[in-house]
Design a protein that fits this description.
- 2 copies of one chain form a homodimer.
- With 232 residues, chain A is mainly alpha-helical.
- Chain A contains 10 helices and 2 strands, in the order ααααββαααααα.
- Chain A folds into 2 domains: 66 residues, Orthogonal Bundle (Arc Repressor Mutant, subunit A), CATH 1.10.10; 133 residues, GntR ligand-binding domain-like (Four Helix Bundle (Hemerythrin (Met), subunit A)).
- The radius of gyration of chain A is 18 Å and the shape is globular.
- The model of chain A has no long low-confidence stretch (mean pLDDT 89).
- Chains A and B meet through helix 1, helix 2, helix 3, helix 5 and helix 7 of A and helix 1, helix 2, helix 3, helix 5 and helix 7 of B.
- Chain A binds a DNA duplex (30 and 30 nucleotides) through helix 4.
- Chains A, B: It comes from Lentzea waywayandensis.
- Chains A, B: This is DNA-binding transcriptional regulator, FadR family.
Chain lengths: 232, 232
Amino acid sequence: MMEHAQEALFRPVRAGNAFEETVERLMQSIRLGVVAPGERLPSERELATRLGVSRVTVREAIRSLQENHYVESRRGRYGGTFVNEVLPKSAPGKEFGDLHDVLTLRKVLETGAAETAAGRSLGPAERRGLRARLEEASTSSLVEYRRKDSRLHLAVAEATGSAALTAAVAESRMRANELLDHIPLLEPNLAHSNAQHERIITSILDGDPATARQAMAEHLDGTASLLRGFLV
Amino acid sequence: MMEHAQEALFRPVRAGNAFEETVERLMQSIRLGVVAPGERLPSERELATRLGVSRVTVREAIRSLQENHYVESRRGRYGGTFVNEVLPKSAPGKEFGDLHDVLTLRKVLETGAAETAAGRSLGPAERRGLRARLEEASTSSLVEYRRKDSRLHLAVAEATGSAALTAAVAESRMRANELLDHIPLLEPNLAHSNAQHERIITSILDGDPATARQAMAEHLDGTASLLRGFLV
DNA sequence: CGCCAATGGCTCGCAGACATACCTTTGGAG
DNA sequence: CTCCAAAGGTATGTCTGCGAGCCATTGGCG
């Protein structure tokens, strides 16, 4: 009865408890640079509503982030929970999961996103957003690079106009970043990466799906082989 | 702070409660044909373990499927919960969600899966599996077609060797099927579909990624335009 | 200067989900 | 014919998470 498909369908319904999943989401929004250092998270009440979780759970999650020095909270009107300027290094990774699994899904999602985005007629705001992210990434320092890189790739996913695809890319990127945090980031790689970014964004803005896909594929293959090399 | 990516990251952490999600999973395994009519579901204890949910919750979910005449349970050794030969028609759909969203993600995932599968060296078992699913679908009756079609597409996803990708395809297909259940399935479409399936599987078995991707893209575009037409 | 809206901080009772244990039924193996 | 392993059926106590309400703090607005 299709033994292998069962592994997918009968996988755990819950990745963890509500608390753990909430921590994970907030962590993602910070690590992927969606909420930048110095910026404020949505209020506890708003997060509770949007995440579909009680405010108590949100608070416990935020407390956990505070203890790990990711955020600080201030009371009073115009207070809130703010992302720290200096972020802790990620905890020494657990397991390298299934490398093939992560890289396969990432490539499928992101090359597909690039192609789809290039095939759409983008509004002025979207075009500006893409250019801004490209600029951000190319002028970024080494320490900020991973975050700015993720913001750029997320912007590409957003440009497809599919929320589900954006969510899938965010999830996939988070898993890939866990691996990438364990290999060194060198200046030459960064320069190369920037050149590839330029080509990806240009072909999307020019409405050239085939080139966008190919450029993204090459870009991803680059880091994929770096990973395969370092993690043996 | 990247307003749109927030929609993805701050989406609800839970699609529903444990009971609802469990029903959803079991339903998927039946509707996608992963467990065929007459076949037995894994035991309650095994499902509880694999789904990461208590046995009580599994039983409540199964009870719900019984009441809707999807399955019947028999006690005693060699008993279990069996999928009924005649399945109820799907409940009249709720909302058409975001059509663009569903179709975009489906196309990205499935064309990517086809390309990836074609780029791998498949084992004899996998090759046989793909041929078997193709045969199944092509000789299927109208009433069984959707299920057999899903089995074939899931087999393609499995052939990528990525569990995460297979899970994503299953999820996406389920959402697409909810829409497809509301449009008629006609003989000519079916014949056309079978021809496309043939081409997809052949190019995967031949190790031709570009053709596999293109064939899958055409196949999906066919049903996509059907959908867009019928649902206005 | 005082008000007050919006934010984080806190508590308590209820419902859902869980773990665990035990009971009942069934049909093949010995 | 008997035994018993494996499956579904049932019951109970615990704990997590939720909802709802209230308190404490802060800084801009009138």
